[in-house]
Write a structure and sequence with these properties.
Blueprint: H1 2-15, H2 17-24, H3 40-51, H4 59-66, H5 68-75, H6 85-91, H7 101-107, H8 111-118, H9 128-147, H10 154-162, H11 167-175, H12 178-185, H13 190-199, H14 202-209, H15 214-224, H16 226-244, H17 248-260, H18 270-282, H19 290-298, H20 301-306, H21 336-345, H22 355-364, E1 368-370, E2 379-381, E3 391-393, E4 396-398, H23 405-416, H24 418-432, H25 439-451, H26 456-464, H27 482-492, E5 496-497, H28 501-510, H29 533-547, E6 554-555, H30 568-576, H31 582-594, H32 605-613, H33 616-619
Helix pairs in contact: 1-2, 1-29, 1-31, 3-4, 6-16, 7-18, 8-9, 9-13, 10-13, 13-15, 14-15, 15-16, 16-18, 16-27, 19-23, 21-22, 24-25, 25-26, 27-29, 29-32, 30-32, 31-32
């Protein structure tokens, strides 16, 4: 059924539909007085679609009561909005979100530190729970070295664990359902829980995961591998914030700016550095000053490690770690950061810089490095690694003999450049207005950027006050990214997210594994980059699984649609919050026909809801 419906969706998007839509929705460069405007109902829904991760039931009524302009002003000042207490409750168990990188490394050590503990080169932490788990990991590591397997049969482990339980408890532990086992764990002391978890094979622990309390899930995760806890917390928090936060524009902008200053999570030390990068570098600056954001990313250990600048040194810089009896390891200038700083972060590929500028900028940033990067150290400037020669950047001479101020001077030059003003303005307009935004709008935003010396809130205000943002052709004209699609579907169904492991897996299948864009470009904001038949099939599959309550960790309650179950189009209208297009009606009708359900008969609510979420109308924002 889904593949038949997909044919309709693909036909719409990739043959006549999406290309025609792109032509229809192309924003014209007409004088402002001639730009048509949306109706008031469209404006409210458009604001929710573009400035949030999708409307929830009741959001449209709230924004209409508040007024679109006033609602936007609130969103532009997230500090004035009380955060959703449910979000805070769901984030509370994710303790790594509040840790420094060094604290994460200590509490959730990487494999090399497990090895060091096994060899006696590192001491165990004092916390009893953490120490217990690490001792077990070390024991497993030693076992693998000896036998490449589990030397102790599961039955023997069970026998050891039986001493901790009475007869009824042991029976539950051995033969009870997963829910009964989870209930048993909740009655036991922490150290007993840990001993029992250690006795369980990994598949059995994973089966228990779905019904476990947040605390028990945490312990199960740690047995699977400490590092995975850090990465899972990060992805879970992004999804939970996208779904539950009241400060929706801040979340959308945090995602936008993270992609703009992308860092790849799976590169070495960045597994422990990305959490604080998003928390302390990106999020606080999304509506602040661009120069402050640029400097914060330049000094971030996550960025320094990702683009290798922490290893970049000036000529003749001694290597204090080199073996004097060995051949000297090659060290020198690394241009990765200098190139991406201009091409992706500021000027843009057509920003007027040369390869010589790339080299000179890289020289300015020599010595910008990290203290003990693999132990979660912070930024430092190493004078001995800095190239003290004269540099020439974009026509500006930077005198010889400088130090860290050379890099600061580059930041200032780039932040003030008219090319940066245009590039940043266009990037924002591509995300929020159109794949090919009107040049007049870009120039207007760039003028605000220049006049305010990079005030990002001011640039956003200029864009949101422009007629181009509110032209009818912009209404649901951009295709959602996978993250936007997943979050908006959950919000539209008012679903409850208990944990995000399965959702992260869905996003990987949809083509957007969180924090794992290897290239420094980050994920695209252009609709055309997300349109292909495989992706559309995956989206439809996700929609059907979601409404069928087949996504572990997510619960959908369809009760609100019961009174409309004899009218599929009413259900679809309630989800979309606007009239359906012909294409959406066709997708839903085809899906019902493939299930031998005529439009005038009672249709399964989950099916109608899934078809609606997978329809072209819902895929656009």
């Amino acid at each position: 059924m889904q593949r038949k419906v997909l044919a309709v969706v693909v036909l719409f998007f990739s043959i006549s539909g999406f290309s025609a839509l792109a032509r229809k929705h192309k924003l014209e460069n007409a004088p402002k007085p001639a730009v048509a405007q949306m109706s008031s109902d469209q404006k409210a829904l458009h604001a929710l679609n573009r400035l949030t991760f999708g409307p929830r039931p009741g959001d449209l009524e709230v924004i209409n009561q508040t007024g679109v302009d006033r609602w936007i002003e609130f969103q532009l000042h997230p500090e004035s909005i009380s955060e959703n207490p449910l979000l805070e409750t769901k984030l509370q168990p994710l303790d790594t979100l509040r840790m420094s990188p060094a604290e994460m490394v200590a509490a959730y050590p990487p494999p090399q530190q497990i090895k060091a503990m096994s060899e006696g080169r590192m001491v165990y932490p004092s916390d009893p729970e953490t120490r217990f788990m690490l001792q077990k990991l070390v024991a497993r590591y030693k076992q693998k070295l000896m036998e490449k397997g589990d030397a102790q049969p599961a039955a023997d482990k069970m026998a050891d664990s039986s001493e901790l339980l009475n007869a009824d408890q042991l029976r539950t532990f051995q033969t009870g359902s997963n829910s009964e086992k989870a209930g048993l764990f909740g009655t036991l002391p922490v150290m007993t829980q840990l001993t029992l978890l250690d006795a369980m094979p990994q598949p059995k622990r994973q089966q228990l995961f779905a019904v476990a309390s947040p605390e028990l899930r945490r312990r199960i995760q740690r047995f699977a591998g400490p590092l995975q806890v850090v990465n899972q917390d990060l992805s879970d928090s992004k999804l939970l914030r996208a779904v539950y936060s009241n400060r929706q524009l801040e979340e959308v902008l945090t995602d936008f700016w993270y992609n703009h200053f992308n860092v790849y999570l799976d590169k070495g030390a960045d597994r422990y550095l990305v959490t604080t990068y998003e928390r302390d570098v990106i999020r606080p600056h999304v509506l602040g000053n661009f120069k402050d954001l640029l400097l914060a990313t330049a000094q971030s250990p996550a960025m320094l490690f990702y683009l290798d600048n922490f290893q970049s040194v000036g000529p003749e810089t001694p290597n204090p770690n080199a073996n004097p009896n060995a051949k000297r390891a090659k060290r020198g200038l690394n241009e990765n950061y200098g190139r991406e700083l201009m091409e992706l972060h500021t000027l843009g590929v057509d920003g007027g810089y040369t390869q010589q500028d790339v080299t000179e900028v890289a020289r300015c940033f020599t010595g910008w490095t990290i203290r003990q990067p693999r132990r979660g150290g912070g930024f430092e400037f190493n004078e001995r690694q800095h190239d003290k020669g004269e540099k020439h950047v974009l026509g500006v001479t930077i005198a010889a003999g400088g130090g860290m101020e050379d890099g600061l001077k580059v930041i200032d030059i780039l932040a003030r450049s008219p090319a940066t003003a245009r590039f940043i303005s266009k990037s924002l307009a591509v995300r929020f207005v159109a794949d090919n935004p009107p040049q007049e709008l870009v120039e207007l935003m760039a003028a605000t950027f220049t006049r305010t010396q990079g005030d990002l809130r001011g640039v956003m205000k200029t864009m949101l006050a422009s007629p181009e943002f509110w032209t009818p052709s912009a209404f649901r004209a951009k295709l959602k990214t996978p993250l936007e699609m997943v979050a908006s579907a959950i919000r539209a169904m008012n679903a409850d997210v208990d944990y995000g492991f399965a959702l992260n897996r869905e996003l990987t299948q949809l083509g957007e594994p969180l924090y794992r864009k290897q290239e420094p470009t980050g994920y695209s904001n252009k609709s055309q980059d997300w349109v292909n038949s495989a992706a559309l099939l995956a989206r439809m599959n996700f929609a059907m699984n979601l409404t069928g309550n087949k996504v572990p960790g997510v619960k959908v309650d369809l009760q609100r649609f019961v009174n409309a179950q004899n009218d599929p189009m009413t259900i679809a209208h309630d989800i979309l919050m606007t009239d359906l297009t012909t294409e959406a009606r066709q997708v839903i009708s085809q899906g019902l026909a493939d299930n031998n359900i005529a439009n005038n008969k009672s249709a399964p609510i989950a099916l109608v809801a899934g078809l609606t979420l997978g329809s072209p109308d819902f895929q656009r924002r």
